[in-house]
From TrEMBL:
<dbReference type="InterPro" id="IPR000917">
    <property type="entry name" value="Sulfatase_N"/>
</dbReference>
<keyword id="KW-0479">Metal-binding</keyword>
<comment type="similarity">
    <text>Belongs to the sulfatase family.</text>
</comment>
<feature type="signal peptide">
    <location>
        <begin position="1"/>
        <end position="21"/>
    </location>
</feature>
<keyword id="KW-0378">Hydrolase</keyword>
<keyword id="KW-0106">Calcium</keyword>
<keyword id="KW-0732">Signal</keyword>
<feature type="domain" description="Sulfatase N-terminal">
    <location>
        <begin position="65"/>
        <end position="421"/>
    </location>
</feature>
<dbReference type="InterPro" id="IPR035874">
    <property type="entry name" value="IDS"/>
</dbReference>
<dbReference type="InterPro" id="IPR024607">
    <property type="entry name" value="Sulfatase_CS"/>
</dbReference>
<dbReference type="InterPro" id="IPR017850">
    <property type="entry name" value="Alkaline_phosphatase_core_sf"/>
</dbReference>
<dbReference type="Pfam" id="PF00884">
    <property type="entry name" value="Sulfatase"/>
</dbReference>
<protein>
    <submittedName>
        <fullName>Sulfatase</fullName>
    </submittedName>
</protein>
Amino acid sequence: MKMLNISLCLLLFLCWGWAVAQEPAVPVFRAPMTDGTADPTGFSVSYPLDKLNPTTEISKPRQLNVLFILVDDLRPALGVYGDQFAKSPQIDEFAQQAYVFERAYANQAVCVASRYNLLLGSRSTSTGLYDFGRAFRDFYPKATTLPEHFKENGYYTAAIGKVFHVGHNTYNDTQSWSVPHAHDLVIEYADKSTKGQTREEALFANKSWTDANALRKGIPWECLDVPDETYADGRVAQLAAERLSELKGQDQPFFLAVGFARPHLPFSVPQKYWDLYDPKELPMPTSQVNPEGSLPYANKRDGEIVQYLGIPSSAESDPFPDSVTRKLIHGYYAGVSYVDAQIGKVLQQLHDTGLDDNTIVVLWGDHGYLLGEMGMWTKHVNHELANRIPLLLHLPAMSRQVKTQTLVETVDIYPTLAELCEIPIKTTQQPLDGKSFVSFLKNETTSTKEYVYHCFPRDGKLGRAVRDKRYRLIAWEPLQGDAPVAYELYDYQNGLLETVNIWRPDHPAFIKLKAALDAEPSAAASRPESKRIE
């Protein structure tokens, strides 16, 4: 009898197993990580459908939102990038759950071109849009900008603050956005005791160069005990937070671009951010001379920095007196901390609304910045510090930091965001030069590219540059005429500051990088200035 009972149990078990085998496989729902569980792709973890609420409707996953934060003139002067002096707690905290690209580069170190590079996905040498005053739709009337691509695919798109460069006879692109652009100031002073516009305020208000140059210079910094919202970035953060609250209840996915002005000159920043720093402890440039053997037209003096009151020209003082250098560096770092606090407000609101669980967040600096290194200030050169940018990317439910030295450039962002949001890119009128790095995000051992590419025109010549993990080659070609090409080659093995041009025709790095540069398309001629909009 005992043996019979065992046999019956065994028979029942086998019948049950056969019945289970006939059931269809249980489908699996791919949901964002909520518990930190690792998934091979780094994006999601699998949950069986029967683990969900039985009333849950099985439908296509929601499209991801995009919050794109743009910061003017921000070099990687942030704690997460190893800057020991920067007070940037909000960005540093955000970076704890983000990809931190330590070798990201602009395609041209100037505001207008770098933003065209981003929003068109095109290098300056492909479009010929190197300078202010060139409306891209004069030359590419059917261009599809990055936000416009999202808009055409069902997204609500909006811009708050500085996104497209507005000023210097350059304007916003209205058809990129679902709603009017919420513009604010770049040049601003809280002290209203001096009446009338400064020359830089006039230029950013799209007054002509002739009219602007007849005006007085503005001061390069302002330190007053005022609320954050006294200046544009505080107002931009406030408006962005309000817009996120409005977006919380809508089903339509969004692409929200939020642009901040500081640490662009003038360093008009509330006093409490200046007070974060002891000026005696701030880093001073270790070298204030041009790199040995560098080409004279490759370097920079004067320019943007001397458009402000009290800043000496190079003929008057080269380098600047230490007191001026220290004050400017202090103002820059105060600007970094100020914009850090404003970005923190936006990110906090994203979290408070719950939108963060379905939103990609990108933080991008439009180009790098020089703070007296090699005696140079601001940008507008092909050197490392003017072209290396902060780039941070957070994916929904990402729970770790990934620091990487994989090479990326600004034009890569357009195709990457489109792929992440599963919006195929059709043929565009403007050239698309970027390469998506989604494959790297899915598998961090995947390489992106062997080198990045950028350019800058100076003194009638165009410097085209390629930068691999160790070297940068710059080829200087005349914009007109047939003068021979001149070269600079820099080695960054021992630091990110150019010290000596090591170019020689038989240098192995030159031979390798020249082949890469020669494989790139020829540079487009500079476009003519567009008609001024009155």
